[in-house]
Design goal:
This protein is α/β, with parallel strands linked by helices. 45% of the residues lie in helices and 11% in strands. It folds into 2 domains: 143 residues, Rossmann fold (3-Layer(aba) Sandwich), CATH 3.40.50; 59 residues, DNA polymerase, domain 1, CATH 1.10.150.450. It contains 10 helices and 6 strands; from the N terminus they run βαααααβαβαβαβαβα.
Length: 218
């Protein structure tokens, strides 16, 4: 049975909703407050940390452990009126419901945020569960242990696992572990697209028959 692992922010809903940019702005503000930085310095630090550690929170935990409080970090960065950005999405619901197998959210955010997003999108009941950053021991994608932990929690095997994500870095780390990787990208670079198994311009274009056909060719 296929096990579908869906990233949340930027994957189940588009960046064009404005929600992820709003979260990103609050992440920058959090670093400003915690570390006493101006906006430009905080943004530069975020770029370096994401490249080096995968997420801003991981960078904070590694380089400023005395200032790192994951629960406080998520409480601040996700403190937004989500209903101003996203709403029930019947088209998304149809796409997800048509996928055979079990569906999981696999996110570097926390479960509370994921539940709020799923409820507002009207698709919470379509997922078996949420694998958040705390469930993988605060070792998020693209760390190899995050994928292995996710597989164990989902009771899935790599040969039947599909990862759908908007971040290429997360997908290229999962592919060598056996995941079938689907990159959600509106304008992917051709050279980068060869690093994943499939590319779709948005989650609405996801089709199980295409995934299964390509998976058999691997």
């Amino acid at each position: 049975m296929l096990a579908w692992f869906f990233d949340l922010d930027g994957t189940l809903y588009s960046d064009r909703t404005g929600l992820w940019p709003a979260i990103s702005e609050r992440i920058t503000r959090y670093l400003q407050r915690r570390l006493g930085l101006d906006a430009d310095a905080a943004q530069a630090l975020r770029r370096r940390w994401v490249a080096a550690y995968g997420t801003t929170l991981q960078g904070l935990m590694h380089e400023h452990p005395q200032a790192a409080d994951p629960a406080d970090y998520f409480a601040f960065t996700h403190n937004l009126p989500l209903e101003d950005y996203i709403a029930p999405d019947g088209r998304l619901r149809e796409v997800l419901a048509a996928l055979p197998g079990r569906r999981w959210i696999f996110t570097n955010a926390d479960a509370a945020h994921a539940r709020r997003v799923l409820r507002l999108l009207g698709v919470e009941d379509l997922f078996v569960g949420i694998i958040d950053v705390f469930a993988v021991g605060l070792q998020p994608k693209p760390a190899a242990q995050a994928y292995r932990r996710a597989l164990r929690l989902a009771e899935a095997v790599p040969a039947e696992a599909v990862l759908v994500d908007d971040r290429l870095q997360n997908l290229t780390a999962a592919r060598p572990l056996g995941f079938f990787t689907v990159w959600v990208a509106r304008h992917p670079e051709r050279s980068a697209a060869s690093a994943v198994d499939a590319v779709v311009p948005g989650v609405y274009a996801l089709r199980a028959d295409v995934v299964l056909r390509e998976a058999r060719r691997r």
